[in-house]
Amino acid sequence: xxxxxxxxxxxxxxxxxxxxxxxxxxxxxxxxxxxxxxxxxxxxxxxxxxxxxxxxxxxxxxxxxxxxxxxxxxxxxxxxxxxxxxxxxxxxxxxxxxxxxxxxxxxxxxxxxxxxxxxxxxxxxxxxxxxxxxxxxxxxxxxxxxxxxxxxxxxxxxxxxxxxxxxxxxxxxxxxxxxxxxxxxxxxxxxxxxxxxxxxxxxxxxxxxxxxxxxxxxxxxxxxxxxxxxxxxxxxxxxxxxxxxxxxxxxxxxxxxxxxxxxxxxxxxxxxxxxxxxxxxxxx
Length: 284
Prior knowledge:
Elements: H1 4-59, H2 70-79, H3 81-115, H4 117-132, H5 135-146, H6 150-174, H7 178-186, H8 191-228, H9 234-243, H10 247-279
């Protein structure tokens, strides 16, 4: 005749499975609420700022040439949308190209600095020195060196944005646990195997942190270049609207830049999540 424990085993298993399912469901609800809060709070804060801006400008009767209300900016954005998109394309592709080149150069330079003490002692102080120079002061030199075409804006964007990638990547490559490196040496792993299997996966979060900063710096570099020399682009459009005292058009162009910057940053963040889940771990 079966014992009492044998009879109760199915019930205990069913209870455990139900408890686990409830725990998973509760964890998913908490994660969903956390995601909703992260999305809702910034949106509500922005909506509050816009409401105060709209109400304040209309109540104080601020001239639109000084500060138009958000409704006027939205109306100008809708009416001038084809013009804004026409000028957005040069800014977008130059920012993307500058970011891509800066990322490749930054990771390559950081790898060389981490791999060789002589290269690090030779180049790293000079890299830091050039970054201490006010970058806007150097923008006219890029026009002299590269002319009035997109090359000047692209090169200046690379110059502005590659330094965060270098610093972040170098930090990630250097901050590997010593025990892992000693284990690699004990297993007679080559420097390349150690780099691919240990250093690079560990540095992934650091690299993407630098890339997030570089994504915003690349846009800034292109806009500064368009302020100095350009016949197209959102920076040129902002200067043109400023000369015509079209404040609403200026803010509309800035709004397009903000949307592009948010999308750009979000794409980098998504790539970071996918890459780290697939190839690397976050630092402890």
